[in-house]
Write a structure and sequence with these properties.
With 99 residues, this protein is mainly β. It has no helices and eleven strands.
Amino acid sequence: MATNVKTRILFHSRRLSIYLVRYPQGHKVVPHVDMVSEGWLYKLNCVLVKPAAGGEFTCEKNIFNLFGRVYLFRPDLYQHRVSKIERGNRWLLSFAITG
Protein backbone atom coordinates (compact mmCIF):
# COMPACT_ATOMS: atom_id res chain seq x y z
CA MET A 1 0.00 0.00 0.00
CA ALA A 2 1.42 3.38 -1.02
CA THR A 3 1.86 6.01 1.66
CA ASN A 4 1.27 9.67 0.85
CA VAL A 5 3.57 12.61 1.44
CA LYS A 6 2.55 14.31 4.69
CA THR A 7 2.99 18.08 4.91
CA ARG A 8 2.38 20.14 8.02
CA ILE A 9 2.32 23.94 7.70
CA LEU A 10 4.20 25.29 10.73
CA PHE A 11 4.00 28.96 9.73
CA HIS A 12 2.62 30.95 6.81
CA SER A 13 2.75 34.66 6.01
CA ARG A 14 2.93 36.76 2.87
CA ARG A 15 6.71 36.32 2.52
CA LEU A 16 7.62 33.27 4.61
CA SER A 17 6.23 29.75 4.85
CA ILE A 18 7.65 26.94 6.97
CA TYR A 19 6.74 23.31 6.35
CA LEU A 20 7.54 19.96 7.94
CA VAL A 21 7.34 17.25 5.26
CA ARG A 22 7.61 13.45 5.43
CA TYR A 23 8.36 11.67 2.16
CA PRO A 24 7.69 7.92 2.46
CA GLN A 25 9.57 4.98 1.05
CA GLY A 26 8.88 4.59 -2.67
CA HIS A 27 8.26 8.31 -3.24
CA LYS A 28 10.25 10.46 -5.66
CA VAL A 29 10.03 14.05 -6.85
CA VAL A 30 10.32 14.32 -10.63
CA PRO A 31 12.47 17.10 -12.14
CA HIS A 32 10.57 20.39 -12.08
CA VAL A 33 10.77 24.17 -11.62
CA ASP A 34 8.41 25.81 -9.11
CA MET A 35 6.12 28.37 -10.70
CA VAL A 36 5.57 31.72 -9.00
CA SER A 37 2.95 34.23 -10.14
CA GLU A 38 5.30 37.16 -9.56
CA GLY A 39 8.59 38.01 -7.89
CA TRP A 40 11.10 35.43 -6.73
CA LEU A 41 11.31 32.33 -4.53
CA TYR A 42 14.12 31.02 -2.35
CA LYS A 43 13.97 27.74 -0.46
CA LEU A 44 16.09 26.68 2.48
CA ASN A 45 15.59 22.95 2.99
CA CYS A 46 16.97 21.11 6.01
CA VAL A 47 16.95 17.32 5.78
CA LEU A 48 16.16 16.23 9.34
CA VAL A 49 16.17 12.49 8.60
CA LYS A 50 17.77 10.91 5.55
CA PRO A 51 16.34 7.64 4.25
CA ALA A 52 18.53 4.55 4.57
CA ALA A 53 18.74 4.37 0.75
CA GLY A 54 17.80 6.76 -2.05
CA GLY A 55 16.04 10.08 -1.63
CA GLU A 56 18.92 12.22 -2.89
CA PHE A 57 18.18 15.86 -3.74
CA THR A 58 19.74 17.33 -6.87
CA CYS A 59 19.42 20.82 -8.30
CA GLU A 60 20.87 22.45 -11.41
CA LYS A 61 22.36 25.17 -9.20
CA ASN A 62 22.44 25.46 -5.40
CA ILE A 63 23.37 28.68 -3.65
CA PHE A 64 24.87 26.40 -1.01
CA ASN A 65 24.75 22.76 0.04
CA LEU A 66 26.02 21.85 3.50
CA PHE A 67 26.87 18.15 3.82
CA GLY A 68 23.85 17.07 1.78
CA ARG A 69 21.64 18.19 4.67
CA VAL A 70 21.00 21.94 4.21
CA TYR A 71 20.28 23.46 0.81
CA LEU A 72 19.58 27.02 -0.26
CA PHE A 73 18.38 27.27 -3.84
CA ARG A 74 16.08 29.10 -6.27
CA PRO A 75 13.35 26.59 -7.17
CA ASP A 76 11.74 29.16 -9.47
CA LEU A 77 14.86 29.32 -11.67
CA TYR A 78 16.54 25.92 -11.50
CA GLN A 79 15.22 22.43 -12.08
CA HIS A 80 15.41 20.19 -9.00
CA ARG A 81 14.38 16.66 -8.02
CA VAL A 82 14.59 13.94 -5.37
CA SER A 83 15.51 10.39 -6.38
CA LYS A 84 13.26 7.48 -5.38
CA ILE A 85 13.39 6.66 -1.69
CA GLU A 86 14.39 3.01 -1.69
CA ARG A 87 14.38 2.39 2.07
CA GLY A 88 13.13 4.50 4.97
CA ASN A 89 11.56 7.96 5.09
CA ARG A 90 12.87 11.44 4.33
CA TRP A 91 11.93 14.23 6.77
CA LEU A 92 12.38 17.79 5.59
CA LEU A 93 12.04 21.19 7.26
CA SER A 94 11.46 23.67 4.44
CA PHE A 95 11.54 27.47 4.55
CA ALA A 96 10.06 29.23 1.49
CA ILE A 97 10.86 32.94 1.15
CA THR A 98 9.11 35.02 -1.53
CA GLY A 99 9.44 38.57 -2.73
